[in-house]
Amino acid sequence: MKTVAIVGTFDSKGKEFLYLKELFTEIGLNTLTLHTGTFEPAFVPDVSNEEIAAEAGENLRELVARKDRACATAAMAKGTEKIVLRLYQEGKFQGIISLGGSGGTSIITPAMRALPIGVPKIVVSTMASGNTEQYVGTSDVILMPSIVDVAGLNSISTRIFSNAVFAMAGMLEHQVTKVEKKPLVAATMFGVTTPCIETAKAYLEEQGYEVLVFHATGTGGRTMEDLVRSGYFQGVLDLTTTEWCDELFGGVLNAGPNRCEAAGLYGVPQVVSVGACDMVNFGPIDTVPERYKHRNLYRHNPTVTLMRTTVEENKAVGEKLAEKLNLAKGESVLMLPLKGVSMIDAEGQPFYGPEENEALFDALRTNLNRSKVELCELDEHINDDSFALAAAKKLIAMMESK
């Protein structure tokens, strides 16, 4: 029989959590309860708040006596993450669920993010609308809107809570078993590099690899980096590194300062290129910062405005990308498409810019450590089939030689 970990503040929301526990029992699932609140719980948990506080190096009584809510929340989140991960590794539960407002959601979601991808994770939360990145991060946490506040049992809340319970039961009962195991390759793609990645993906799949494509929208890049660090991939086809443009110049799709590090540092074979480094991303055109209003702007769609990168900006992107690639401890190849880096960086297209691209290429040539990274320049456009196939074949050769 499967077990669900029920984690939350059993002091302030005891009735609600007890409802979950009783419903799980009614449908034939075991429960493991962990109390993350700082006061007395409404029912006896399997793991007490004293144990959780201790995991964070805190004495619960002293924590309460400080009367510092932020400090207590941080400590309980830290302790919960440690205990939840350990209990999962010990096989004590197969799925995890919680309820809460901003405080409860911030306590439990770090623990959920620490669990492997694929473990069912549900939080019924008042925060399940708007910007949820701080809770979900790069994980597969499911945030379910609570509709009403998590403050009692009523006709709305009980329906929402029961839906969450039944969703968890369904995920635990029904699992895909007929999955052919193939070596995994990560690839990065943007709308303007889609032809390249589709061609490379098709070829890799023909050769027996499974390709997971990550949309280079900030979250996609961070997710890929996290999964590379976790050991999921045999190779990385990072042909779309546009997120660096947003990171350096204030765009909305940045992936943070550690982009393009994981494969190199963990010795995973990688083929990297400069796909879509001709653009910085903003929202609707009226949201473009005032300092950029005079620039070469392109309305990709009503909600996305692209800004062409300048010579100086391309130089900075090249220097940063070289810096990251020089960290490599395994086989790495940088491929330069000399005829254009995106669908709209081609002759007759709005971002066609040979001078800007040359600044990017020169910065990479100058700063790349050739003893660590092989430089391969092709007189082709990034979306040419020949470029995509060359990149895929390079990666296969490295993976097979490892």
From TrEMBL:
Pfam families to which the protein is assigned, alphabetical: UPF0261, UPF0261_C
Q: Which InterPro entries match?
A: Tobamovirus_resist_UPF0261, UPF0261, UPF0261_C, UPF0261_N
Question: Residue ranges of the UPF0261 domain?
Answer: 2-175, 182-399
Source taxon at top rank: Bacteria
**Membrane-crossing residues?**
none
The protein's matches in PANTHER family, at most eight in alphabetical order, are given as: UPF0261 DOMAIN PROTEIN (AFU_ORTHOLOGUE AFUA_1G10120) (PTHR31862)
Q: What is this protein called?
A: UPF0261 family protein
- Tell me the organism: Paenibacillus faecis
Q: What is the lineage of its organism?
A: Bacteria, Bacillati, Bacillota, Bacilli, Bacillales
